[in-house]
Amino acid sequence: MLLKIVELIGVVAFAASGSLVAVSKRLDIFGVCLIGVFTAIGGGVLRDVLLGITPPTSLNTWRFFTTAVLTSLVVFFLHAAVRRLRREILVLDAVGMGLFASSGAAIALDAGASGQAACLIGATTAIGGGVLRDVLVNEIPLLLQRDLYAIPALIGSTAVVACSGLGLNTDIALVVGTISASAIRLVALWRHWSLPGPRLVDD
Amino acid sequence: MLLKIVELIGVVAFAASGSLVAVSKRLDIFGVCLIGVFTAIGGGVLRDVLLGITPPTSLNTWRFFTTAVLTSLVVFFLHAAVRRLRREILVLDAVGMGLFASSGAAIALDAGASGQAACLIGATTAIGGGVLRDVLVNEIPLLLQRDLYAIPALIGSTAVVACSGLGLNTDIALVVGTISASAIRLVALWRHWSLPGPRLVDD
Amino acid sequence: MLLKIVELIGVVAFAASGSLVAVSKRLDIFGVCLIGVFTAIGGGVLRDVLLGITPPTSLNTWRFFTTAVLTSLVVFFLHAAVRRLRREILVLDAVGMGLFASSGAAIALDAGASGQAACLIGATTAIGGGVLRDVLVNEIPLLLQRDLYAIPALIGSTAVVACSGLGLNTDIALVVGTISASAIRLVALWRHWSLPGPRLVDD
């Protein structure tokens, strides 16, 4: 139950981040909804395609899709107000990212993936939507550039694989994974951590 | 039989639209064919991957692929002449879009997708090729911007799901879906309908 | 055994080409590794998704992923030195491309694909990583523009399908496919072959 609520919070945060980008690119109302939906459920669709779970769960159930569309519509009509909540959205987004990375890894293990594949597919679940968003609006994905986003996602999915390797039950693994991923992401945001870029001697 | 002919007309129109864009980006002969093929069969490949139909039908049968390559070659060599047919291509493209959205939804229902998933996957079949085309040539997908294209596709696939829910047979569902999607698209083109963009107060 | 070595050489060359591009785009250390990994295993993941082999082999086994990450790290820290090996990397890349196209076609035939699908999926295995790389760093894929890269890949996968049609065993098919694809690619590089672009009368 709690899990489902956190999941929906994640969908709302992801859809809001996607549709805000779409608004700033001046897409029309449909484009804004489409980018919002892609950002929110794209990672889950990628996960299911990689695991052979077809049709993908996020397409097959109405909860995620409807939530993402409603969020995008709110953003479309009230984007100035939503933009003022930027900080709050970033926090919810971090929680959603942590949960998606963890549940992605758990679902992958369930589907028979190796530990390594589960780590990678879990992280893909969390970051896939954002990458799709950036590719569609024709930007180099933010997380490739400076955002410390994918590393926390990888840590969350790895934590789930580790917990499962230790024989802990799935609920505990999900809590550990989500909290570790989200906490690292929030600290990174708060302390403005970023990764080193290449040293370009010849500049 | 009629279905197959309409399908091939759609492939020709999609391949022509893709390869015309590629020519205007000055890609070489292979790039023009590749973009033409992606535009024509990309939506169908996405549909099959989402439904777990592997290898995808459009790769596994020669009809679609060969038609798309031949169309692209014609466009490559005669693009000035083809460009003069722009209006006719748009009409054929609308018919193809309607059929792909409808048949995509019908195939999804057949593969056990929920009604919602069938609507979404049907629309994906119709618009997926165009989105791939725009991503590959590094443009923000047109249909995200102003083109009223995805809405008619969604209406077509939804019509098929509704007909099937009413117990009508598949052929009738396909005819209803194709005609409704294509007609709305054509009227939208003719009346220059477009969707509202976000109101940006701060401009 | 030899096959596995050539495969790893291909992964190294692909990861190096990807991470060099990422360095020149000034991505951070994680972005460089991610683009390196995508370039190296993206084609194989696409192949497996198209064939319904889930979870994809390249995610499920540690060899490819680890090799790609290590190569990307070396490039990140020593990119000036690696850049001086550009010529050598191009040669290894040609060998890897040939092998991936050939083994992709063989795996597709094994999975029940038609001859045509096997040709297309083999070529996709070889070029998919490079296309993903270019889409992610927001460039029009090089191979759509002037690089004679996809044609040799198609020739290699077609050679494998032809050999298999003639009843030759898979090892021989792989050798014939790899050598023909790589040789054509190398000659094309050496002679600066390129494909004709569209004649634009109206410039």
TrEMBL record, chains A, B, C:
It is a multi-pass membrane protein. It is found in: Cell membrane. Coiled coil: none annotated. Residues 5-79, 91-163 form the Glycine transporter domain. Keywords: Cell membrane, Membrane, Transmembrane, Transmembrane helix. The keyword Transmembrane applies. GO terms for cellular component: plasma membrane. The chain crosses the membrane at residues 6-23, 30-50, 62-82, 89-109, 148-167, 173-190. Belongs to the UPF0126 family. This is Trimeric intracellular cation channel family protein. It comes from Rhodococcus spelaei.
